[in-house]
Amino acid sequence: MTVFSELRMRPAPAAASAGWDASTTTRLVMAGTVIFTLLVGANLATPLYPLLQAELGLSTLGITAAFSSYVLSLVATLMLAGHWSDHIGRRAALILAVLAGLAGGWVFSEAQTLAALCAGRALQGAAVALATGASAAALRELLPSRPEWASRFTLLASSGGVAAGPVIGGLLSLLPGATTAPYYVHSLVLGGLLVPLFLLRARPAINIPAPSRPLKALAPRRPSVSREARGAFWLAAGVGFLSFAVFGFCLSLAPGYFAQVLQTGSRPLIGVLAGLALGSSALSQLVTFRGRYTVPAGLAVLGVSVLLLGAAGTWHSPALLVAAAVAAGVGQGTAFRTVFNDVAAKVEASRHAQIVSTVYVITYLGSAVPVLGLGWAAGTFGLPAAVAGFVALCGGAALILSAVTLRLALVGPG
Known about the structure:
Elements: H1 3-7, H2 24-42, H3 49-56, H4 60-81, H5 85-88, H6 90-109, H7 114-142, H8 147-172, H9 181-199, H10 227-251, H11 254-262, H12 267-283, H13 294-315, H14 318-346, H15 352-365, H16 369-381, H17 383-411
Helix pairs in contact: 2-6, 2-7, 2-8, 2-9, 4-7, 4-15, 4-16, 6-7, 6-9, 7-8, 7-15, 8-12, 8-14, 10-14, 10-15, 10-17, 11-12, 12-14, 13-14, 13-17, 16-17
């Protein structure tokens, strides 16, 4: 099946079925690599924000607007096109995502105004959105008898890409052209991914629309969740919203905050610190925690750790900053994986991409709306005061949610 026949949502003739019949393992690696690489590119800018702010004369609110344009575009695309891979196929959706990612990286790297920065970030958000549902659904289809590991790989690739982006961006910014070199290198990698994707013999879409009205299948859908999965869905969305509010802070204003705490201007160091929470969240996917108290325990660790992040700034303690960031990632990763698995297990395969995309709609809003408020507060009250208020709200919310899930665990079945 060719890419064009997939995009037209028409079955290809038997003669067109030639192509690279990759193994299941190879397909797993490719699905994870695409979303990982796109998220790396979307977060290369994290350690570059202080430099861009100085070069372009941007305010703190301008930086958060650039960051949030990525998230808002991601959310909008998830709502409008999160189900597309069910109809055009996983491979075609991933190819569209890579092409959008290439365009977004180029626009952002050449930007000379805030509007251009936002446009580049918006394209990157659309790319990540197109790949999110497609890669998650592909991983589940490739591991039909091991849905828990499919969810682990999904979260590992996602969290790992977000964590690696600031680190790689900081290191590549040491090359000539600090704000452009990271995107040139990343574009070469993304372009290289198109080759195996085009050569791959794609599997048919699981829900090919009627030939008479194929485009109707791509129309936006009102999000809906089955009654059996509704409770698990809202818990996953709530945990995701809260944890991504913390991650959004780490990836937007935290570089400037960390630089003040450590009194350093090293972009690689700032990138490492910004990615610590995401990195520990990704690594936590490799460790198994079971039991009814996993979610409340993870949320409690997240809440306490977020409060300690604020304390680290007040006390100017680098050691506490590192420890709190790592612990926050472990708590978030443990809690979110558990509730995410619960949703995935209760959703029928034919709607997996749509429901996963809907979970991420709410989750990613957590890294946009609160961060915009934080940017306004930083401009009004100063960065230290804004961060103190932010961590108090997020830490308190995590502890409250921990208490709620603990009560549910205590009254639930054994």
